[in-house]
Amino acid sequence: MAHIPEGVLTAPVLIGGGLASVGLLAVALRRLDYDHLPRAAVLSAALFVSSLISVPLGPTSVHLLLNGFMGLLLGWTAVPAILVALALQAAFFGFGGPLVLGVNTLNMALPALVCAWVLAPALGRVRPARRVWIGFAAGFLGVMLTGGLVAATLALSGEPFRPAAQVLLLTYPPLALVEGLVTATIVGFLQRVAPELLSTGARSHV
Amino acid sequence: MSRTSPVWFLLLALMSQPALAHKLKVFAQTEGDWIRGRAYFVGGAGAGGARVEVQDSEGRVLAELTPADDGSFAYRALAPVEHRLVARTGDGHGARWTIAGETLQGAFSPPTTPPAADPSDDSGLPPTRTQPPADIPAPQVPLDHDPVAPQTFDPALIGAIEQALARQTHPLAERLNALEERVRFQDVLGGIGYILGLTGLALWWRCRRAGERA
């Protein structure tokens, strides 16, 4: 899934992904909103732990990604949050590895940023009752975009594209649906108990 | 109250500790000239849909295996050379395991006469027997006696012993291998501690800069 292990990708892909991640990180750190840091830490911890609950599905095993939700709530701050969580997963659990960290971060962070750009502004525009749907869209979009990026990185590295694409087509849509539902539930819950969290999120990354 | 949702999620994740994690592994051992093994996700679930390639030391593909639903597979080696097992699930999960050529040596030792010992001799013995059989004369051999050279043993007998030993130790070795990779509670706590520490560092950095400016 989002953790491509060591030794699968070729050097140009690894270097390209690493450079792109460093670039994103530089922008993110420049724009870092320090008031978002505690929230980013909680979400980073959630992402770090979420990979432990994974479900065997078809030939592979999947778990929640949470990157759409992180993009929605954190905006640019999602990039360092994802990087930290992935680095710790590589160090503690052996998912991914130090060399592929750049590519894996890119695959997770780009969809988060897309969600931040496309969906977070909508949070402020729609009626509060409709925010749940935006949550669903963020979860769905985050997973599908990550799936597409993983398939693209594998294809760029010369892995046989068809089996990879087949597996991804088989496993990502159900996961995206589940992720969408989970994200919608969390957004709905936040809307009830702390709506200001969602509206500040919507304002801050426009 | 505002942050309870992720916190609950986190707690839930912590409580479901033995849950399946997500890294593909492959493990194999020799039994005679058979290589038996299993492809699985760390935590235990077999990777039934994975594909296992058997390669030699130069990367030439000798065979491609499709594991059973529980991830187990078997391959009959044709020569006592190094075998590399490469498992893939197709979406970027991959794992390797190497079988050294020496471990297959026993099964490919020069053929001799079949074991002279009556097979019914030991077939009735329980496998967990700890007492040595009474008919082993080794302890009675005087110390100044010629050391028993290995070639005086029947190679077929050695092969049989190696095979039996492999059968007995296989589950143990597999468990040990799986334990090595298990995600432990302290790892999870350690990771969360790192995240909190990094956040604290960033906030401290910000306070320091704000103080300098003031």
From TrEMBL, chain A:
Pfam families: CbiM. One of its GO terms (biological process) is transition metal ion transport. Keywords: Cell membrane, Membrane, Transmembrane, Transmembrane helix, Transport. It comes from the Bacteria. It is found in: Cell membrane. Signal peptide: none annotated. It is a multi-pass membrane protein. GO terms for cellular component: plasma membrane. Its main location: membrane. The chain crosses the membrane at residues 7-29, 41-66, 73-93, 99-120, 132-157, 169-190. NCBIfam families: PRK06265.1-3, PRK06265.1-5. This is Cobalt transporter CbiM.
From TrEMBL, chain B:
This is Nickel transport protein. The chain crosses the membrane at residues 188-205. The lineage of its organism: Bacteria, Pseudomonadati, Pseudomonadota, Gammaproteobacteria, Chromatiales. The keyword Membrane applies. Residues 105-146 are annotated as: Disordered. Keywords: Membrane, Signal, Transmembrane, Transmembrane helix. It comes from Allochromatium humboldtianum. Residues 1-21 form the signal peptide.
